[in-house]
Design a protein that fits this description.
471 residues; alpha/beta; Aldehyde Dehydrogenase, Chain A, domain 1; Aldehyde Dehydrogenase, Chain A, domain 2; seven-stranded mixed sheet; six-stranded mixed sheet; globular; binds NADP nicotinamide-adenine-dinucleotide phosphate; binds glyceraldehyde-3-phosphate
Length: 471
C-alpha cells in the first residue's frame, strides 16, 4: 500500500491522522495520505507567505532552472507517476502516461512563455499628460491556492502550479481525495528537486472536512479551482474577496448538421463521449441530429461502441470503472429516468458495481434529466431535432457553457451556427477538448469564470505594477 505525507515548508507532515484512498478498480485501499488538521493548514499558508517574499526576488531564469529540475524528475519518474494515477483514479495506463507527458509539454511551453510576459510601456499624451511615461510590469499576486479535480490529478494540478511558481508566487495545493497519492507524490519530487523552502505546499485532506478552512484563509491572494459547480459556488462564497479562476462542469453538445462524413463524425463523437469513461468536463454529453440520417448515425455509433473494450486500467481498457460506486449510482439514475420516460437503449445499460458499459440512448427528449445533467460517465444521449434553430435553442438552454462541437462541411453554416452558441469554445468538425494547451480555455455561465490556458494562466496569476516617470 502506498503512503505519502502532506508537504509543508519542505517537511513531510505526519500527525497520526490518515486519509484512505480507494482504488476504483478493486474497491480496496490504494494507499493513504496525511489528513491535515487546522494547525497544519494554517502553517502551510504562513510558510507560503514567508517564502513568497524571497522567491519573487529570484531572477526569472533562476526560477525556471529550479522548475526544470522538478520537471526532469517528472520525466525520470513518468512510469511510476502513471502507475500511481492509474491505481487511484482507474485511468488506463496508456492515458495516465499520456497525461504525464502532456504535462511535461505544458511545463516546457509555460517556462518559455513566461519569458515573454513583457511590461507594457505607454505615454499619457492621449489624456493630455504628455510628460508622463508609464511602465506596467506583471508581478506575482502572492499566495495562490490551487485546487484540482480527480479526473486529471497530475495535469490540471501542474497547469496551475507551474505558471504560479514561475511568475514568483508561492503555492498551496489541495489535490482531490482521489488524486491525493499523485498529488502528495509531487511534494516528494519538489523536495528532491530542492525547490526553495515553503514555495510549494501540498495540503491533503477531504474537501468536505477541510475545504472551508483551506479556501477561507486570509493569506490567499488568488484561487485557481477546477471541479464541480457546487464546490465552485462554495468557493465563490468563501473566497469572495480573493481573485478567482473557476473551471467547472459542462454539458457539451455536438450538433450534426449534415451526413457528408458520418463515419468521421462518429469517430470524434465516440472519442469525445467515452474518453476516460466520459469523466472529462469537455466530454460530448449530448448529440443533436436530424431525423433523416439519425438512424444511420446511431447505427455507426453502435458499431463503434461495440468495439470499445471494457475492463481494467492496467489492461488499457477503453472503458474502466468510474471513480466510485456513488457516481455510478448517479449515472444509472440518469439512464433509468430516461428509460422510464421513453428513451431507447441502443447498447449498454449494464454494470458491475462502478464498472459501467458504454451506453447509447436514442430518442432522448427534453423532459429527461440526461438531456440537461452532467453524468460524468460513459453514457451518451441522442436527441433527434429537426431544425437548426431548435438545436441552438436547446444548446443554449443549458446552465452550462463550456464547449460545443459542430459537424458540418459547409463552413458558412458552421460559422453562422457557431456564433449563436453560448459557450466558451466551439469546435468545428472535432470533439470538444481543452487542448492544444496554448489555447485559452474557458467556460461561461455555470461552467466557470476567468480563463485558463498557458498564457492566460500566467496573466491571471500576476497583476500589473505601474511605475510612472514624470519628466
Ligand atoms: P469536485 O467534487 O468539485 O472536487 C474538486 C476539488 O474540490 C477536489 O480537490 C475536492 O476535494 C475539492 N473540494 C471538495 N469540497 C470542497 C470544499 N468544500 N472546499 C474546497 N474544496 C473542496 O469535483 P470532482 O468530482 O473532482 O471533478 C468532477 C467535476 O469537475 C465535474 O463536474 C467536471 O465537469 C468538473 N471538471 C471541470 C473541468 C474544467 O476544466 N471545466 C475539468 C475537470 C473537471 P475532495 O476530492 O477531497 O472532495
Ligand atoms: O476534464 C476537464 C479537462 O479540462 C478536459 O481536458 O479536453 O483535454 O480532456 P481534455
Amino acid at each position: 500500500m502506498r503512503e505519502y505525507k502532506a508537504f509543508i515548508n519542505n517537511e513531510f507532515i505526519e500527525n497520526g491522522q490518515w486519509l484512505e484512498i480507494i482504488n476504483p478498480t478493486t474497491l480496496k485501499p490504494a494507499g493513504r495520505v496525511t489528513a491535515l488538521k487546522q494547525k497544519d493548514i494554517e502553517n502551510a499558508y504562513k510558510s507560503a507567505r514567508y517564502a513568497q517574499k524571497s522567491w519573487e526576488k529570484v531572477d526569472l531564469l533562476k526560477r525556471i532552472a529550479f522548475i526544470n529540475e522538478f520537471k526532469n524528475l517528472i520525466i525520470k519518474n513518468q512510469n511510476e507517476i502513471a502507475q500511481i494515477m492509474s491505481e487511484e483514479i482507474a485511468k488506463n495506463l496508456q492515458d495516465s502516461l499520456g497525461e504525464v507527458l502532456r504535462t511535461v509539454e505544458i511545463i516546457d511551453y509555460t517556462l518559455e512563455e513566461a519569458k515573454r510576459i513583457d511590461p507594457k510601456a505607454m505615454t499619457g499624451e492621449g489624456m493630455g499628460a504628455k510628460n508622463k511615461i508609464g511602465i506596467f510590469s506583471r508581478v506575482a499576486k502572492g499566495v495562490i491556492l490551487a485546487i484540482s479535480p480527480f479526473n486529471y490529478p497530475f495535469n490540471l494540478a501542474l497547469a496551475k502550479i507551474i505558471p504560479a511558481l514561475v511568475m514568483g508566487n508561492s503555492v498551496v495545493f489541495k489535490p482531490a481525495t482521489a488524486g491525493s497519492l499523485v498529488g502528495a507524490y509531487m511534494g516528494k519530487l519538489a523536495f528532491e528537486a530542492k525547490l526553495p523552502k515553503g514555495i510549494f505546499n501540498v495540503v491533503t485532506g477531504r474537501g468536505s472536512e477541510v475545504g472551508d478552512l483551506i479556501t477561507s484563509n486570509p493569506e490567499i491572494d488568488m484561487i485557481s479551482f477546477t471541479g464541480s459547480v457546487n464546490v465552485g459556488n462554495q468557493i465563490r462564497k468563501n473566497g469572495s474577496t480573493t481573485d478567482l479562476v473557476l473551471e467547472l462542469g459542462g454539458k457539451d453538445p455536438a450538433l450534426v448538421l449534415d451526413d457528408i462524413n458520418l463515419e468521421k463524425y462518429a469517430n470524434e463523437i465516440i472519442s469525445g463521449a467515452f474518453g476516460y469513461s466520459g469523466q472529462r468536463c469537455t466530454a460530448i454529453k449530448r448529440v443533436f441530429v436530424f431525423d433523416n440520417y439519425a438512424d444511420k448515425l446511431v447505427e455507426i455509433l453502435k458499431e463503434k461502441i461495440t468495439k470499445l473494450s471494457v475492463g481494467n486500467p492496467e489492461d488499457n481498457a477503453s472503458i474502466t470503472p468510474v471513480i466510485d460506486v456513488k457516481s455510478s449510482d448517479f449515472i444509472q439514475g440518469l439512464i433509468d429516468d430516461a428509460k422510464t420516460k421513453g428513451a431507447q437503449v441502443v447498447i449498454g445499460d449494464k454494470r458491475q458495481n462502478n464498472l459501467m458499459w458504454p451506453t447509447l440512448l436514442d430518442h432522448v427528449k427534453t423532459d429527461m434529466r440526461i438531456a440537461w445533467e452532467e453524468p460524468f460517465g460513459p453514457v451518451l444521449p441522442i436527441l433527434r431535432i429537426n431544425s437548426i434553430e431548435e438545436m441552438i435553442e436547446i444548446a443554449n438552454k443549458s446552465n452550462f457553457g463550456l464547449q460545443a462541437s459542430i459537424f458540418c462541411q459547409d463552413i458558412s453554416t458552421a460559422l453562422n451556427v457557431a456564433k449563436q452558441i453560448e459557450v466558451g469554445t466551439i469546435n468545428i468538425n472535432s470533439k470538444s477538448q481543452r487542448g492544444p494547451d496554448c489555447f485559452p480555455f474557458l467556460g461561461i455561465k455555470d461552467s466557470g469564470e476567468g480563463v485558463q490556458g498557458i498564457r492566460e494562466s500566467l496573466l491571471s496569476m500576476t497583476r500589473y505594477r505601474g511605475i510612472v516617470i514624470n519628466y
